[in-house]
Design brief:
This protein has about 280 residues and is mainly alpha-helical. The protein has eleven helices and two strands, in the order E-H-H-H-H-H-H-H-H-H-H-H-E. Helices cover about 55% and strands about 0% of the residues. The chain has a two-stranded parallel ribbon with strand order 1-2. It is elongated and about 70 Å long.
Length: about 280
């Protein structure tokens, strides 16, 4: 069921970010999504940042790869550099070569999924995300990426399952709470949606980008129910982090007004795609 109004989606350089670069001695940490770090700061995470590679740095990486084609980290970094420049096919070549050399390099699988998703190769993207999860079952980031892909292509039920999978690993994953709220709102389950967005604000604090987006969505919903003060009061009383309410509010038909429809004007925002660095 479609929502009766458009909601804000994450516009962070994180939602669809690339996987961060890792060294051979990195512990297998769970990569959560952004918090005060584009980011889900709570559990052990690999920080996600927008890497900006200079031309000189890219040439240096290309030279390293040319000199030794088996250097996994150099290839991985080169893939990230190409991705940052929008050179998606070249980035994909590098990430595919990484997993050809080491099929257990889970961060490269996440990035293969991310790039394929941007290239609208949904089947390949899903396969890559699932491979990353198989290799690193505690990677919150991979679950959120898989969920975002499902959500963007209309499979809301599967997306919600994977947002919940991410939250089972990291209950403070801001992006999972935020997007789960959007999914609830799309199904007109507004109290659950409000609870998720308020949970974002509870865990993220006022400075987190997700908290600001959550506030945008809260204001949209509040405005939408302005003519139903009793239900509006119940929505505003919901606290973040609490259990889901057992019942839902059924929207009453708005009184017909000549030339006007009841709907919110707030438009959705989309999170910028990124990969693991």
């Amino acid at each position: 069921m479609k929502s009766r109004f458009a909601l804000a989606l994450p516009v962070l350089a994180m939602l669809l970010a690339l996987a961060p670069a890792s060294r051979a001695d990195d512990p297998p940490a769970a990569a959560a999504v952004p918090v005060a770090t584009a980011d889900s700061a709570a559990a052990p995470v690999v920080p996600r940042v927008d890497s900006k590679f200079t031309s000189a740095q890219i040439k240096e990486l290309e030279s390293k790869v040319a000199a030794d084609s088996t250097r996994l980290q150099s290839r991985f970094d080169l893939g990230n550099a190409y991705y940052d420049q929008g050179r998606l096919n070249e980035a994909l070549i590098q990430f595919n070569k990484v997993v050809a050399l080491d099929s257990t390099y889970w961060k490269a699988w996440v990035n293969i999924g991310t790039v394929n998703d941007e290239l609208s190769k949904i089947g390949l993207a899903t396969t890559a995300f699932k491979k990353a999860i198989q290799l690193q079952p505690k990677d919150t980031f991979a679950y959120v990426k898989l969920a975002n892909s499902s959500y963007a292509h209309g499979d809301v039920a599967t997306a919600m399952d994977n947002y919940r999978n991410a939250l089972a690993i990291d209950p403070k994953c801001l992006e999972a709470h935020f997007m789960l709220g959007n999914a609830f709102a799309e199904q007109e389950m507004y109290r659950q949606a409000v609870r998720e967005w308020k949970t974002v604000q509870l865990f993220g604090g006022p400075g987190a980008a997700e908290s600001k987006l959550a506030q945008d969505n809260l204001e949209t919903v509040y405005a939408f129910f302005a003519e139903e003060p009793e239900f509006l009061g119940k929505l505003k009383a919901i606290q973040g982090g609490q259990a889901q309410p057992p019942t839902e509010h059924k929207l009453k038909p708005a009184p017909a007004k000549p030339g006007a429809k009841k709907s919110a004007s707030k438009k959705t925002t989309t999170k910028k795609t990124t990969t693991k660095k």
